[in-house]
Amino acid sequence: MSVGSDITTVPGRSTTTASTAPVGSGARPAVGGSGAGARGGGSGGGSSGSGAGTSASAANPVATHATGGPGDLAQDLLRPQPAPKDILELIFQSDAAPDTRAVDHVRNTLASVSGKSVSTPRVAINGGAQNWTAGQLRQLADDATAQKQGGGQAVIHLLYLHGTYGGDTSVLGITVRADVVAVFQDQVVNSESPVASAATIEDAVTMHEVGHVLGLVDLVLHTGRADPDHPGHSRNKGSVMYWAIDSDLFSQVLSGPPPVDFDNADLADLAAIRRS
């Protein structure tokens, strides 16, 4: 489908308003910095919001898994059931809309590793730059979403925002819940260089964070291949799951542009999660 064919505008909704709503304090650590969750371990990362994406119940396991930590929704996204359709919901502020090529790349990759149809509805929101917290990002996703978890679908909410994560200008992207990813477009643009365009960086960061949602690296499986110094990340500089990809450090540790694809080990893990 055309990326621009399904756009919802949310008039009068500002990110400042969304950020004031409290979020459950039992959230697992976000991935994009340190820490990772896996289904069945640790405390839940659920939100106290009442948005369409967080209507968890025993009768809706997809919604329940979506309120957990990074990796908890991976099996629902990759397996044919109980969600035969995956959705990448693009929620973005003015002048922060995602690059069409990056969206196509992520959508096609998810379709390939899951064997499912993947749609990319868009939601335009108001608001400006701020120093976002994990709780504010989860609440924003719940407030802005037009997609319900379950009912035959699993949803990843991709937030494209102005500002920073907690005032840290080195963070380009982060995964703050099993179904919520944020990409900080101002920092992506600021990281552009002669060897890496903003579009390439955005592609790499988005793929990296979706990789965490899908359980990489060792957030669902326990292969022992994750970087012990950077949990949830790859040690392979040729993988988009390399630990430096979601921060501006990539330009200091890589000699060229960041990788934008999963490596063979990542793809093998995703296939194993799908079979599990």
How would you sum up this structure, described in words?
The chain has 276 residues and is an alpha/beta fold. It has a domain at 3-186. 29% of the residues lie in helices and 16% in strands. It is built from nine helices and nine strands. The protein has helices at residues 15-19, 61-66, 74-78, 100-114, 134-144, 185-190, 198-213, 250-253, 264-275; strands spanning 7-10, 85-93, 117-119, 122-125, 130-132, 153-161, 163-165, 173-177, 180-184. The strands form two sheets. Strands 1, 2, 3, 4, 6, 8 and 9 form a seven-stranded mixed beta sheet that branches. It has a two-stranded parallel ribbon with strand order 5-7. It is globular, with a radius of gyration of 17 Å.
Strand content: 15-25%
Number of DSSP strand runs: 9
Give the termini distance in whole angstroms.
30 Å
- The helix content, as a percent range, equals 25-40%
Poorly predicted runs: 1-28, 33-52
Net shape: globular
Biggest sheet details: 7 strands, mixed
Mean pLDDT: 83
Number of helices, where a helix is a run of at least 4 consecutive DSSP H or I residues:
9
Structural class by sheet pairing and helices = alpha/beta
The H/E string reads EHHHEHEEEHEEEEHHHH
Radius of gyration: 17 Å
Question: Can you tag this structure with a few keywords?
Answer:
276 residues; seven-stranded mixed sheet; single chain; alpha/beta
